[in-house]
Design goal:
five-stranded antiparallel beta sheet, 4 helices, 855 residues
Length: 855
């Protein structure tokens, strides 16, 4: 897994660049002779400064001090001497290394893990610029205050601001949601997962789970600071951390780096913010509850989500801590149900603690601990499943991780990480009555009761070398990781009756006694890779990974390769692509399947008598293999102007050895077979544009895609919200297939220090199947679709100064579904109903007030 990699030191000092940058700021209003004298004086001064800085850096390197930190604020001075910060400014650090950053809404920027040396810091915004020289010393923090001034104009040429450039290092399809986006974009639940749909090809499916690049939630990898945060039993993401500690969220759709494994879809990696080594910072928000209104009257609390974060030094420049806690109480309405029974309820407490340590000039470490218990009342509530027929879901978990990084004098980096994770869940019915599935509703208590206790222990080692030169430049990496997971569970199933439109029972499902089981899994992987820069126009990413899984008792070989080719000499048009194999782990509920209670399905007459029955035995047919995906992609990135970037991309994925369930009956005996012969297919064509203007960013994309495969996924029958009826497997469009999607969003800097963050998301409605009154499918599955989904969200922020020194606040509001579009979540798909084809449970317009207090 990926560690945080400080940039390695280099020896080249950019004297010419520093000189040229300084001269570029000389004002045109001075006479030619005066300009020449001033230029000579400034040259001599800067050269003396550089020599002094170089000598200081050399001394620092001789004592083994490789990296430091540069941070500061960008501002303009008012006529009366006051300061106004400049958000959205591009800040570049040039010297032994080149780094880029952007000032946030407070005008602040930061560079961490900067190699020791002398640098020029350049800040550019439309019509404004600033340049300053600085020395970066290992283990020290350089504080800068960059005052922006009007750019120099020579003749008719104007120096313009540079913006986002095409990525010349990453061959895989990747998208990063940065810190500014995390802070400003509308986020209904204020979870980092809710930001993922801002990435083209990532949608929230009809079950509420995130589907990345046409893959089921259980097929994707999920990391926090490179530590796996999935549920060992189901394979889905299972962690909540306060969003205030999230620095960025990256989605890698085709990660050809061999360190990534144990998935067949895509990978999301959350990076948290480091602690502040120099001063204490605190923020608090959502201190007032949102009230619940029904028919114009206030009926209790709709949500209460207070959150507080504290960060600061324990030992200045050596040890820093971050602590963030939040409590969440929320109600989600289902408007198609009676008012007093029309909501589900969630309550959780999330805590995240992080300790950042500078052990020595060559070593750093990060320790973290997260706890995330939550309780969900009326889980799965919808139009056809009222509160008494739903279960309650209780989840409890914690994760501890320790990451150590060692940088050698030669420029090599060794990252070690250990983590331990415990995640428990139980599902309990809300009532004890017999569970009846009617055409229009559901009666009785939920049919399933389960308890899951899982653990995972992981150890990872990753080595990255400094560049080696042979037929170009090679940056080698190698590593290994080991994980051991366990799952202790209990499952109980209660009788289920299917009732027809006339009110008579049609079918009954009975189950064997409750079962207890315990399964374990050990996984080990080792990998090597080479980032080979053949020339300044061609780079290859080569990798080979080996995975061994004790459940399947097999070793899987996964080669990958990617490339970056500059099609133009200026490097503004890049062709990227690659191909590779990816193997997924086997979720532990799969090998536990034979231990689950068996079922007997009986057909009934009008009086409830048994006409015929079939007893099904749980079997795994023909053993288990690790799911495997074959992925390839091509992408063209074009920097049309300094402000406008266009991307055209195509991706295709074929997954085999996927798991599905299929009932097979022969008279009174039958098999409920779990097979690894499933497959799915995904293809995506994407056009994306990004435009920056006046400290604002606008993003727009169109995605044409197709997701197709086997439909009897294991988790829909034995996951957190199991279905009672299992019909024969079919192939069709997957439940989250959305062939056409248009996504547009942006961060817009407006007058009066306002920031507008709108999001428009529209896509084809999700598919659904038609059933009869016996719950059998009528015709091919997933042939019909919900109406088109259209959602427009908006969040508005403004920073205000408080009458307390160095303290300020941000106020604003969010509007979700601005135009009150009826984006339905339920459909009556039973042809026996007189409401067949009607849609229900739309998500209405909601308002969220925002007040963030920052110290």
């Amino acid at each position: 897994m990926r560690g945080r990699s400080p940039t390695m030191p280099h020896t080249k000092i950019g004297l010419f660049f520093v000189d040229a940058a300084f001269l570029a700021m000389t004002t045109f209003a001075v006479s030619a002779d005066a300009q020449l004298k001033i230029a000579i004086i400034r040259k001599v001064t800067i050269m003396a400064l550089i020599l002094g800085l170089t000598g200081a850096c050399a001394f620092a390197q001789s004592t083994g001090q490789p990296t430091g930190t540069v941070q500061g604020v960008v501002f303009i001075a008012d006529a009366d001497g006051g300061r106004s910060v400049v958000p959205g400014t591009k800040v570049a650090l040039d010297g032994p290394s080149h780094l880029d950053a952007e000032s946030n809404n407070e005008g602040k920027f930061a560079f961490s893990a900067v190699p020791c040396g002398s640098y020029t810091v350049t800040a550019l915004a439309p019509g404004l610029s600033a340049t300053e020289a600085t020395l970066v010393s290992a283990g020290a923090v350089s504080e800068l205050a960059l005052q922006m001034k009007l750019e120099a104009v020579v003749g008719s040429a104007t120096v313009t601001a540079s913006t986002d450039q095409v990525d010349t290092k990453e061959s895989s399809g990747s998208t990063t949601i940065g810190e500014s986006t995390v802070e400003h974009m509308p986020n209904r639940n204020e979870h980092f997962e809710d930001l993922l749909p801002l990435v083209p090809g990532v949608v929230r499916g009809p079950n509420g789970l995130i589907n990345m690049k046409g893959a089921r939630a259980s097929q994707n990898g999920s990391l926090v600071n490179s530590a796996d945060v999935t549920d060992p039993a189901t394979g889905t993401t299972a962690i909540n951390i306060p969003i205030d500690v999230v620095s960025s969220v990256q989605v890698l759709s085709t990660p050809y780096d061999p360190e990534y494994g144990r998935f067949t879809g895509a990978v999301s990696n959350v990076e948290t913010r480091p602690g502040d080594f120099n001063k204490f910072r605190m923020s608090a928000q959502n201190l007032l509850p949102r009230l619940r209104r029904i028919d114009g009257s206030i009926m209790g609390i709709a949500a209460f989500t207070p959150r507080m974060t504290v960060s600061g030094p324990i030992v200045k420049d050596r040890v820093a801590f971050t602590e963030s806690v939040e409590y969440r109480y929320e109600r989600d309405p289902v408007d198609s149900l009676p008012p007093l029974q029309s909501y589900n309820r969630s309550e959780n407490f999330d805590s995240y603690t992080q300790l950042d340590v500078n052990i020595s000039p060559k070593q750093t470490a990060t320790a973290s601990f997260a706890i995330f218990p939550q309780h969900l009342d009326y889980y799965g509530l919808n139009t056809f499943t009222p509160q008494p027929s739903t279960p309650d879901l209780n989840e409890r978990g914690y994760q501890a991780a320790l990451q150590h990084r060692y940088a050698s004098e030669a420029g090599d980096l060794l990252t070690s990480q250990v983590s331990f994770r415990r995640f428990d869940a139980d599902l309990a019915p809300n009532s004890n009555g017999p569970y009846h599935l009617l055409v229009e509703t559901t009666e009785g208590g939920f049919f399933n009761h389960q308890d899951r206790n899982t653990t995972r222990t992981a150890w990872e080692e990753l080595y990255r070398s400094h560049p080696h030169h042979f037929l170009g430049s090679h940056e080698l990496d190698a590593g290994t990781d080991f994980a051991h997971s366990s799952y202790d569970g209990r499952q109980q199933f209660l009788p289920v009756q299917i009732v027809g439109v006339a009110g008579y029972p049609l079918e009954q499902i009975q189950f064997g006694p409750a079962s207890r089981f315990s399964v374990e899994q050990s996984e080990i992987a080792w990998f090597v890779g080479d980032n080979w820069t053949i020339s300044n126009r061609l780079t290859l990413n080569l990798g080979l990974r080996f995975d061994r899984d004790s459940v399947t008792d097999s070793v899987n070989t996964a080669p990958r390769s990617g490339f970056i080719l500059a099609l133009t000499a200026d490097g503004k048009t890049l062709l990227k692509g690659g191909a590779g194999l990816f193997y997924d782990r086997v979720p532990l509920n799969i090998p536990a399947f034979p231990f689950l209670p068996e079922r007997t399905v009986s057909q009934l007459n009008a009086s409830g008598g048994v006409i015929g029955s079939t007893q099904y035995t749980n079997v795994i047919s023909q053993g288990l293999r690790n799911p495997r995906s074959e992925v390839w992609n091509l992408e063209v990135d074009r920097q049309v102007t300094s402000n406008f970037l266009v991307r055209v991309a195509y991706q295709q994925r074929n997954t085999v050895h996927d798991f599905y369930l299929n009932p097979m009956a022969s008279g009174a005996m039958g098999l409920l077979a779990l097979s690894d012969r499933g497959s799915d297919f995904y293809k995506e064509f994407q056009v994306t544009g990004r435009y920056r203007i006046h400290r604002s960013t606008l993003n727009a994309s169109y995605v044409r895609s197709r997701a197709y495969g086997d439909l009897n996924d294991f988790n829909q029958f034995f996951g957190n919200d199991p279905q009672a009826v299992i019909q024969p497997n079919q192939r069709g469009r997957l439940n989250f297939d959305a062939p056409n999607r248009i996504l547009a969003w942006g961060e817009i800097a407006a007058p009066w220090k306002l920031t507008f963050a709108p999001v428009l998301d529209t896509h084809t409605g999700f598919p659904y199947s038609t059933i009869g009154q016996s719950r059998e499918f009528v015709g091919p599955r997933n042939e019909l679709r919900f109406p088109r989904f259209v959602s427009t969200d908006l969040q508005v922020w403004r920073e205000i100064r408080l009458p307390i020194k160095e303290k300020h606040a941000r106020i604003g509001f969010g509007v979700f579904n601005v135009f009150n579009r009826a984006n339905y979540r339920d459909v009556q798909n039973d042809i026996a109903s007189n409401r067949f084809g009607e849609f229900f449970n739309g998500v209405g317009r909601t308002f969220h007030g925002k007040f963030v207090l920052e110290f």
